[in-house]
Amino acid sequence: MYKVAILLTRPMAESIFAEEDLADLRRFAAINDPRNLPEVLTADKMLELIRGADACITCWGTPPLTPAMLAAAPNLKLVAHAAGSIRNLIPPELWQTGCRVTSNAPVIAEDVAQTVLALTLTSLSRLWENAAATRAGKWLGGEANVHATRRLNGLKIGLIGFSSVCREVIRLFKFFDCDIRVWDPYVCPAEMRRWNVTWMELDALLAACDVVSLHAPANPDCRHLLNSRNLPLLKDGALLINTARGLLIDEPALIRELQTGRIQACIDVTDPEPPAADHPFRSLPNVVLTSHVAGGHTLNGRKRLGANAIVQTHNCLVKGLLSFEIRPEMLEHMA
Question: Is the N-terminal amide bond of 217 cis, ω within 30° of 0?
Fold first, then answer.
């Protein structure tokens, strides 16, 4: 029987694991009891739990793995990360051991894409403003023509970064017969044609699209992709959505554009987080600011994270198969 170390806090384990999924895990592996996990996981506790393990499951709240932990688990074959980004979890030394790595980024991508769709539909329908008006005692029905609304069907959608989230967004928005444009300097335009979308240079995309959604990674070369030079290219009435990373946008430059009132923005991520109490994103009427909740935080979706980590662990240990395997050369272009 294999040994699988569950390297989570107890609240996180309770959040992502269903009892039936843990029962499946116990059928092929000895595990540490999630009920005995600490409220806060320390490196010392991780070192104790990972000793002699064949695989480990990590998530939000798991401290970075260390060379000492790898030395304590010389037969470690898999790190199954039940969250998304592994950027701050995996030490460089791990890649020399033959241990494989996977994450739940594709699962979380579904949540993020649904959030992007929800933000798009509610913003185009001006539901935020209408709800604020009714709370203020007004009743501005459609016949009042106060809030000019738009339907999603047929609009030009610009997606920045051909990530797993971007691909899920494409799947959802295709139902609305949208004209989808994508910019990603590392993706071949031929691949875009396979997805039946149009590759477009960034400046042209910003100028052409009714909705622009960011899906690029938080890498140095992506810092301030949108800035004082290209944000003015956004067409009047455009909707800008950022559910990726705050550093992708030069916030002072975006604030200046928003203050003109000519565009809308839905912002789920900022740089830094949280934004200051007096940050303009909190008060501008044409901004919807949410607190980094786009992906992985749905009550029913959380259990999928745990179940998928267990499935990947089983497939890797028992069959040698692994979905969404992460290799070191991929990190440069990942969140």
Answer: no
Of the candidates 317, 319, 259, the residue with the CA atom closest to the CA atom of residue 79: 317
Tens of pLDDT along 299-333? 888 999 999 999 999 999 999 999 999 998 887 77
**Residue listed under structure tokens 């999603």:** 152
Distance CA 292, CA 149 (A): 26
| CA 256 vs CA 149, 228, 252, 262: distances in Å | 24, 9, 6, 11
Residue type for position 264 = Q
DSSP single-letter state for residue 148: -
* Rounded distance between C-alpha atoms, residue 331 and residue 228, angstroms: 28
* Same domain, residue pair 265 and 158: yes
Backbone phi and psi for residue 285, each to the nearest 5 degrees, phi listed first = -70, -20
Identify whether residues 199 and 67 lie together within a single domain.
no
Torsion sign, CA atoms 62, 68, 73, 76: positive
Residues 28, 58 within the same domain: yes
Domain with 185, as residue range(s), is 108-289
CA distances from 42 to 7, 12, 31, 38, 58 (A): 10, 14, 18, 9, 13
Number of domains in the chain: 2
What's the CATH number where 54 sits?
A: 3.40.50.720
Q: Do 99 and 198 fall within a single domain?
A: no
Regions in the chain scoring below 50 on pLDDT: none
- Say what the pLDDT of residue 146 is: 63
Query: Could you tell me how far CA 88 lies from the centroid of its own chain?
Result: 15
